[in-house]
């Protein structure tokens, strides 16, 4: 097989930063090529160079596609050649239908008048190809993330795709949907469509890819065939971080104390549809110094559970009991929950965790402004001290505490959110997907922080969709499924298979 | 910008010594917006001073300039809070008219004491703001819609209250709110000694406060602001305030309304920059959900910004009525647009979370000086509007472009 795509000596500079430096990428026709690397390694930039988001004159180097040199000036140039990119953030219009989205900008129209019959006919064909069985008149907003992803791919198929680029396609999908997507990629391979997939989920990469290219700090580190061996994941990690990660999870001396938080008979209904019973009679507890995991698929109700406990920030018709150190407590609004020493670190740091345009300092003190104020008046010097303390403690990499958090990397943003809650001096920390979308090194740092917190005697509830992470970090794991607690396992007895079995058993 | 990004890349070592590379140029560059605005005001004033052959800075004209723009400045302060919190208030022009009408009915028709009547008007204004804020904050009705409705309702009520007629004149004691000057307790009034002394005292206090703030900062780290700029800024404060005081002392001294404005500006500047309340409003405008999840009572804050806006619009209504010495059905028409324009020229962001009180005030005066200068040069009202519109557009384009470059 010969190469369908050759990118040679690509160099792309942003003001002050070399994002890519002499990067080479060679993709064979009909293969699934995985592009991996830490956040900021240059993967997305490389794909933007390829697809014409950065026009030809804005970078150095050559692109050969099907043996011919290409000079894309805009996205439509690359699309014309059959190169389609699907970005991490889906580009769908929520209030339009599946068919309307698929043909957006490419309508089945004669002289500007849309032929709706043909549009729906063709939409039906392409959605069938990706295994999406929904009426093509369904609005995007009524679809789950997994199905939205399929609509994006169907949209690509409607444009005669030869090289499909997927940027983190499974980052917001649950395991079933992820598996379906990977199967789809295999099917495309059988049909001769080439795919490039960018992913942080190394187990998926190892499972599906034919060739792997690793980028680090804007350089091509290596490119090698994926032999599906057990060792391949470790090899990828080694190449990504530039050193051997002997242990992905830092060690911890476990010292579990008294009962801290107990939740009894917790029930929550959907925040809009009061008849949808989301959380059903959930019981769980966590002790001082203990890290308790909550496993489950996306949509199992873990975030809803956590947020409804945290000052009823989610849901309605909430019932049940919350006990702190054995005493029933009132957590009916966020202020009360915070005052009781409960903190919730959100899974969605950009939307729910940070004020992106504000400085690191301002974000760090937001949940405990009274701590840096005398009465109503802010004490700037005290606030700077707090800023400096937490930047140091959490090793937040920044130019100064006045830097806007929008300019930080994902890992450092996550540390700011964590720092904000640490400064509220909580006794119970509920961490919702604390390592989502951050790179291997930053993950290790976050794990270490969590371990330190447990060592200080904080009670920690750790919600995660990555089972290895839960197995590596927790003392006890609850398994949630369909809004219920499907089971509870001490970590010594837990395994990925057991957890999956609990989830599935509850479903059936 | 480039330097900053490299420091980010170079990791933790850079964390501790961020201020090393501070040069005057890079500081100015990263604070282009604030200094640019001030510079624009100075440039506009100097050019009009030249183009109007020195009329602009005549004591009488400077005093007039302050009086003419007082109600816009008063409302800009409140609008800044509303816009920073991520909302808008279109009803303020109608509230100005309505409160003026109410004041006229109470004082002229019923002969009510002016202090009591003013108090009733301020409370009514706050109640109007609160009523609108209630729907916006607690029922999530878009502020654009609620206050658009308010704009129609209160314009209509103004007409109803006045029965289509103008009512006046006001009692002399009430007129002093707008047309009065502080008495010269220290001299004969020629020149106005108290004005000179107040100017000197206020400017010295501001410089003293700045120096103290800088010393406190210096204790913990090297201040961000280069020393030369710090000195220049304070020299400018000293010169500008004393020069203005000198000019006004040559006429009749400080107008009462200027004292009111100065108080409002200092109170609200302090509130926005130094209090937990202010910080929470910025957080609310920057990311409402994140603020809420951090324990900020976002509904209450939104409600308060509107109640406050209503009260300040009422104050502006009183000032305006006192200045015209009558309440007319047309009073306050399109004021909301001037106020909103001032806030945006002053650097506030349409999406909330960004903006300063001082910026909004400078924005208001920038528009005011242009109005005034162009009137002196007898530019027609037609082209005045065109030029004002273009200035607003240019200011916001500058903001967006500046932000893009920084990002």
Automatic annotation (TrEMBL), chain A:
UniProt keyword ATP-binding present: yes
Determine if Cell membrane is one of this entry's keywords: yes
Its annotated compartments are: Cell membrane
How is the protein disposed in the membrane? Peripheral membrane protein
Task: Cite the ABC transporter domain residue spans from the record.
Answer: 5-242, 263-507
- Kindly list the GO CC terms recorded for this protein: plasma membrane
One GO molecular-function annotation for this sequence? Answer: ATP hydrolysis activity
Q: Which residues form a coiled coil?
A: none
Q: Which NCBIfam families match?
A: GguA
What is the protein named?
A: Putative multiple sugar transport system ATP-binding protein
Automatic annotation (TrEMBL), chain B:
What Pfam families has UniProt attached to this entry? BPD_transp_2
Q: Membrane-crossing residues?
A: 35-56, 62-83, 90-108, 114-137, 144-164, 193-211, 227-247, 253-271, 301-322, 342-367
Matches recorded under InterPro entries: ABC_transp_permease
Q: How does it sit in the membrane?
A: Multi-pass membrane protein
Q: In which domain of life is the source organism classified? A: Bacteria
Subcellular location field: Cell membrane
Main location, first listed in the record: membrane
Question: Which GO cellular component terms, listed alphabetically, does the Swiss-Prot or TrEMBL entry include?
Answer: plasma membrane
- GO MF annotation list: transmembrane transporter activity
Functionally, this protein is described as follows: Part of the binding-protein-dependent transport system for D-xylose. Probably responsible for the translocation of the substrate across the membrane.
Name recorded for this polypeptide: Xylose transport system permease protein XylH
